[in-house]
Automatic annotation (TrEMBL):
GO terms for cellular component: nucleus. Pfam families: HTH_23. GO terms for molecular function: nucleic acid binding. It comes from Acrobeloides nanus. It is found in: Nucleus. This is Transposase.
Amino acid sequence: MKEFRAAIIRMHERRTGKREIGRLLGIDESTVRKAIKRFEETGSNDNRKREKTARSSRNIQRAKGMIKRNATTKVNSTRKLAKKLGVSQESARQILRTDLKPYKLQKRQKLSAAARLKRLQRARALFRRFSNGRHRQIVFSDEKLFTIQQASNHQSDRIWAEEAPDTEERAVERTQKAESVMVWAAISARGKSPPLDYSIWSILEEKACSKPHPNLESLKKALKKAWKEINLETLINTVDDFPKRLEACIAANGGYFE
């Protein structure tokens, strides 16, 4: 209703009543009152400039202080932080997402001082042994259990939709003791065994287990098809990651590096 503000003020200065102004202009009386109040408080018909107090430097520093004392979401969730700062949850979320970065907790195998030292020694020995491209002569082998159930990653798998899909569409069903098959495989920079590195298993799982299988034969068929589709370039890239991981382990002194 900004276009009516000047007319409202002119009529108000001529001592026209608020109700009459509204009737003449075809607008609500409340709109007339707001326009007059704005003009009396600011001396202008322009929109008020909103003060961005929620993400003020003071609130940001307060939030960072709270996070520094306890960085877990159990103590400083969006809702709890908003309550402490006296702002909305959306404002608290903007502070957390814009001025801070969220990191997920990660489960790791416990590493004692002795285990770290052993990892460091082995990584150094392997790096020396397989330097100058000799890592491409290694044959990497491993085994993994696959089931007929659909593989899913609850952290990253999502469904795009304008509205929330039906619960049945979003469900990834699980049963106890599902039919399974143990798969052994070996790869090198020259090719793969005919029937590993962890990345190869993830490729197989993504391709062969994106949907549940009705039986074991269906699973085996999908695994064989996915295995044949892995090209030499993928194998070479996977093998070439080996010395990089050794270097990362050495740089971390045998500790966590990913």
